[in-house]
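ok trying this again, last paste got cut off
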Amino acid sequence: MNTYKLTIQYEGTNYQGWQKQNGSHAPTIQGFVESALSDLLQKETTITGAGRTDSGVHALAQAASFRAETKITPESLLRALNVRLPEDIAITDVQIMPDSFHAQKDARGKHYRYYVYEGKIPRTVGRQYFYQFTYPLKESLLRPVLPLLEGTHDFSAFCASGSDVLTKERTIYKITLTHHDKWWIFDFYGAGFLRNMVRIMVGSFLEIAAGTLSPEAITLALATGRRDVLGRTAPPHGLWLMEVYY
């Protein structure tokens, strides 16, 4: 019996997120990968993802693990799985890991990226991969705000309602902004993220840069846990899971 680690790339547009839903036939990334694995191994096989991505969110390098009794080499497993997967899901790497490896529990951190295009004229090519923000943005209003969210904080205000996690304390190592012409690219490096956390941050950042939200809202939200003082949640299609660190 071996433990395998899969690295998975996917476009989330046509899926109801990563996680398979009990009693639902909605298409999910996990569901398609498990179906391909089960068909290949001729045995029902389940996988555990490093994290859940919502409907419409993409991944350059999601990670997942599973255990199976097979003599198929990692190289052959990669090729055979990709033949069985739709064109918007791909396995990019397969590794045999120590028996104790667990994709979720052993993850030390994640890197998320969010793409924003600033402009009123619709940009149609590749629109499923970025969020178009139609109001003018000022970088000088936003730069001082980014470090406020770095470090360990209670991020209750930056979490989707109805979340059942035990604690909303998380650690953000670094937040960076790359601004070139009309493109705004936000990178988030952290030990872990709450549901919608990055999207709430980005939505708030954009409103601050547009001058419609006070930068003090960030400090107030961290101190009080109030979601209502922040900006709107940015849509999912601009968000990418770039890497999972072990």
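PB: full thing came through this time. The domain at 2-97 is CATH 3.30.70.580 (Alpha-Beta Plaits).
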